[in-house]
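DM from R.C. (forwarded with permission)

"hey, sorry to bug you on a friday — could you get me a structure for this? deadline for the figure draft is monday and I only need the backbone to look sensible"
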Amino acid sequence: MSRDEQLKERWELVVNKLSNQFADGDTLDLDAIIYLIGVQELGQLDKTFKKDQKLDLMHIAICKLLAPYGYYELEYVDDEGWPHYKTIGELPHLKAGEQSVLMKEAVVNYFLETEYIN
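My reply, with the result:
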């Protein structure tokens, strides 16, 4: 199986599992999955978030997802439990489709590491 086929298969597995668990089977998109990762990383699962906090959660998730690629590093966690990252590598200039593939790959790797999928 090619790398692209494997990524596609694993991505579909992640989407299906998360959609069934969190969206009553409605298909979650990449942004929704990134948001869920942010909530998971914050660890405040029972809290309701304001709009600006939701954007912050997505930022946390993106930093967490791209840290293994050498773009971000966890700097500290503040008194309210919010992780803060620093940029350690410049993000490459990618076309929209390439960005999507990178993020999907990072999401799949995240869920492989957390053993949500195998």
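R.C.: lifesaver. Strands lie at 72-77, 83-87.
me: no worries. Residues 16 and 27 are 7 Å apart (CA to CA).
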